[in-house]
Every structure is written in C-alpha cells, then in structure tokens.
Amino acid sequence: MTPADDGVPDVLLGDAHGGAAEEDLRGSAAEDAAVDDEVVAAFLADVALVSPRLVDDPDLRALLAGRALAVLHTTRARLRGQATPERAADVGAVRARSHVHPAESLRAASLLFRHALPPLLSQAAGLATGPRAAERIAVVLHEVIDALVVPAAISYVDVLLSRISDANRDERRRVARDLHDHTSHGIGAAMQGLDLALHLVDTGRPLDPDRLRATRQLLLDTLNDVRSLATRLRDVVGHRTLAQALQEYLDFTVPIGRSVTLTEQGEEAVELPSHVKEESYLIVREAVRNSLLHARGATRLDVTLRIARAQLTAVVDDDGAGFDPATVDTTRTVGLASLGERAQGLGGRAVLDAGPDGVTMTLTVPLTVAQA
User: What are the residue boundaries of the Histidine kinase/HSP90-like ATPase domain, all occurrences included (predicted)?
Assistant: First the structure.
C-alpha cells in the first residue's frame, strides 16, 4: 500500500518504506491527531469564555479550529525537519467582514499557545533533542502563531482603511450631489425670480412684493444649505469634548419645534484619543442628520453619550415613522453605510434599530484610555 492510498499525509511518512518504520509513523500520526483533538476542544472552550461570538458563530468556530490545527501541524513539521504545510489563506479580510477585532484574535492566540505548549512538550522526545529542547519547542510554537496572527492583523487593518477610504469618497460624492440637487437648484430658482423682477421693471409694471420676498427666502435657504455643507466639510472636535462638539452641532442644526436633548456621562473622567473623538463625532452627526432628513413626523431627538467600563456608547434616538433598512438604496444614500464603516475602523459597531416607533442608532467603541 502506498502513502497516497492509505490517507496518511506524505509529510508525516517521509521516505520510510519499511513496515516497522511505516507502522511507527502511523502510530505517531494517530497520537498527534488525538492530541490535536484535545487541544482544539480545550482551546475553543476557553475562547468561548473570553470571546463567545467567535465560538457561537459556526463559520468563525470552524475557522478558529482550522487555524489551531494548522498551528499544531506546522509546529511539529518544523521541529521534525519536515516540509511544512502550505501557509493557510489569510483570514484578516474574513475577520474584518465578521467584525472580529485583532484584539480578539490576539487573545485567542495567547490561549492557543497556553493549550498547545504542554502537549507538545510531552512529545518532546519525538520533536526536539538536547538540553534546550523545551525552549526550542516553545520558540517554534510562538513563531508559527506569530506568522499567522501578524499578516491577518495587517490584512484586517488594510480592509478597514479601504472601507474608510470608500466612505470618505462617498461623502464627497454626496456633497457634490447636494450642491447639484439643492444649492444649484435654489440659486437657479432665485435667478428666475430676479429675472422676472427685472422684466417687470423694464416693462414699467409694478413689482410683486410677495414674489420678491419668496425669492429672498429662497436665497436665504440656499445660503444656509451652503453654510451647512461648509460646516460638515471643516467641522472637527479639536480641543472640545465630544459632548461639547455634539451640543454645538445640535444647537446649530436642529430646527425650531423639534425637541432635542443631549445627555452625557463619564467623559470628564477620561481623555478620549483624538481619532476616537473625531470619528465618533462624525458617526453621531451622520445619525442626527439622517434623523432630521428622514424621520417623518418626529417630534423629538435624543442623543446619549456614555463612557464606562472602557467603552464609549452613543445613542441617537427619534420618534419618527421609522423605515426598513432593506429598502434603502445605498447608491443614493451613503450615510448608513458610512456609519458602519467608520465604527469598524474604531474596532466598534454601529447598530440601527428602525422600528415603526422611530429609529435608534447605537454606537459602541472599545476604549484604552487614561483616567483623568
């Protein structure tokens, strides 16, 4: 029987052709498989305690188990001087799409090292020799895990940077569309009103005061639109707190007649990193803007900002008619997409609850901040 016939990988059989040698290697392969099953089971059980969703999701669980087996197989192959298995496909993009932050991957990698090292040391006689065999096994295991984790983390960051770039490009497109659809239209309509007034003057007929007032109001509305666009383009939090920046935006933006509240808790006790403040501000601002534009029949808008237990939570809630996110044309409405992309860039999540009684956007961002 040849190695190809019996299902035992060639990498484990090497060049052995003698019956006894082949049987020994079969026994070694069976021992490795038994050890691997125990390691993976214990590893997944511990991961379930620190990052439950990595194990609860069947696809992520299978991916995690496969990576653990790849680490064990590659470590043994290197220690035995055998050809190492082909490097597994990079999973950074998969993790980004599944909202798995690199911090969760690092925690899982630490747990895998802890569970894999003792059984590998128990096999030391077949893996490494000499007085520093244990050190050699630990170093190789660490290197193998590192070689899998680092490229995945880099790929994760690349995916998120690409998404943020797309969100910024879409924001510029929306500004251009607003300039065309609203500003240009308003200026064009005002020009028609002025042309009519000049025609009346040229023909000696009396001016229509109501039409002139309507033209003036149209120009005023268009000017406010331009100011709003300029604010969105240049607005940053800067030296202000996140709550201060949001309050100023609400004071400037929310129309008279809409009840608006901003509740803040915990920001005075921490110093938020500047990029967290800026991106969180843009996310909340976009949610407020969507509410003001699309929340039909809304009478109130509530914004809550809370920082506790190393997490920033921001909630934007209105009592409008709500909508079905599945019916939104994302080719025309980029705001909803940008919320998620920017949140992922912070390692967090932006979740929309769009029921019939209104829309709630909840932003959560993990923090590593210094206490004031």
Answer: 281-368
Residue in the structure block whose two tokens are 């880099």: 154
User: Which residues lie closer than 8 Å to 277 by C-beta, 6 or more apart?
Assistant: 237, 241, 242, 245
CA dihedral 181→186→192→196, nearest 10 degrees, is 160
Number of domains in the chain: 2
> Per the domain annotation, does 194 fall within a domain?
no
Q: How many CB atoms lie within 10 A of CB 352?
A: 17
Helices (H), the chain: 3-6, 10-13, 19-50, 52-56, 58-79, 92-97, 102-122, 124-127, 133-178, 184-202, 209-234, 242-253, 274-294, 335-345
57 part of a folded domain = yes
In a domain, 360, yes or no: yes
User: DSSP of 146-157, one letter per residue?
Assistant: HHHHHHHHHHHH
Domain that includes residue 243, residue range: 237-372
| 169-222 residue pLDDT tens | 766 777 777 777 778 878 888 888 888 889 888 898 888 888 898 888 888 888
Environment class of 370 (CB within 10 Å of its CB; exposed 0-12, middle 13-18, buried 19+): exposed
- Residues 121 and 23 occupy one common structural domain: yes
* Residue 46 and residue 131 in one domain: yes
